[in-house]
UniProtKB/TrEMBL annotation:
One of its GO terms (cellular component) is cytoplasm. Residues 3-215 form the NAD-dependent epimerase/dehydratase domain. The lineage of its organism: Bacteria, Bacillati, Actinomycetota, Actinomycetes, Pseudonocardiales. CDD domains: SDR_a7 (cd05262). It comes from the Bacteria. This is Nucleoside-diphosphate-sugar epimerase. One of its GO terms (molecular function) is aldehyde dehydrogenase (NAD+) activity.
Length: 293
């Protein structure tokens, strides 16, 4: 399959590109900079220059391929306005890609986060939130999945709060960055809230499986660790960086503060049973040992 990939140089995207190429697919990947283009070329992908906001470029990329994996998302989460802008840009991009595939029965796999459910771990059957700080992502994913009724094999892979590789990435990576800036490995609340996690290389396998065989209109969970206590995550970060570990106000984490403070474990039982996905790479707590002081 010739696959158009956006976000192909990020923590998840670079692993997805490598996974696709290693399993006989070819890749056309969006690149917004010379550096990204070179990284993709070095990996063995073809390059389409453009940005996520270039909707005509996205449509052209989708038109040239047998399927799409949409991973690109903005990198500025410093304010609520910046986060909202990234969500709006992602939503417009997914709508453009989806419309290009209408009536073709070609696959598109997009990414979202696992939902949170009070009192228990979230499952694949639980709906995404459509309000709150990231509600816009839920609405755009739901709109894409609805294209199943219009001849698009649209599916979604829900990612846990931390997608990691070599101690970097995801919400745990944001905690590490914050610790380096402030000199404290902090966590919001009492630290007992749990975050699910997955290694990027395991997540990449699930994206490939969804692209190849997942039925239209379905959602899957790329969850390896059901839920690691945030205080345990912060403890490893603090030890690796030689910093004190303590509770800090959730406001210190900007627009992600309320999300950081939530207990949000998730399972992937259905995903493993139906798609045969089995994570094999290190857990988050083990992988954080790779953090360099």
């Amino acid at each position: 399959m010739h696959v158009f990939v956006t976000g192909g140089t990020g923590t998840i995207g670079s692993a997805v590109v490598a996974e696709l190429l290693a399993n006989g697919h070819t890749v056309l990947a969006l690149a917004r900079s010379d550096k990204s283009a070179q990284a993709l070329t070095d990996a063995g992908a073809q390059v389409l220059r453009g940005q996520l906001a270039d909707l005509d470029v996205l449509r052209a990329g989708a038109a040239r391929c047998d399927g799409v994996i949409s991973l690109a998302f903005g990198s500025d989460y410093s304010t609520e306005a910046a986060l909202a802008q990234s969500i709006a840009e992602e939503s417009a991009a997914m709508a453009a890609l989806g419309e290009e595939l209408v009536g073709s029965d070609r696959p598109i796999v997009t990414v979202s986060g696992t939902p949170w459910v009070p009192g228990r771990a979230a499952t694949e059957a639980d709906p995404l939130p459509t309000d709150g700080p990231v509600g816009g992502r839920g609405r755009s994913v739901n709109a894409l999945l609805a294209l199943a009724a219009r001849g698009v094999r649209a599916t979604a892979v829900r990612m846990p709060r931390t997608v990691h590789n070599e101690g970097k990435g995801g919400f745990a990576g944001l905690l590490t960055d914050q610790a380096r800036r402030t000199g404290v490995s902090g966590y919001p609340g009492d630290g007992t809230q749990r975050w699910p996690a997955v290694h990027a290389l395991d997540a990449a396998v699930l994206f490939r499986l969804a692209l190849e065989s997942a039925p239209a209109g379905t959602a899957w969970h790329a969850v390896a660790d059901e839920g690691d206590a945030v205080r345990d995550i912060a403890t490893v970060i603090g030890r690796r960086l030689g910093l004190p570990v303590e509770a800090v106000p959730q406001e210190n984490f900007g627009p992600f503060g309320p999300i950081f403070a939530m207990d949000q474990p998730a399972t992937s039982t259905h995903t493993r049973e139906v798609l045969g996905w089995q994570p094999t790479h290190p857990s988050l707590i083990a992988d954080l040992e790779n953090i360099q002081p």
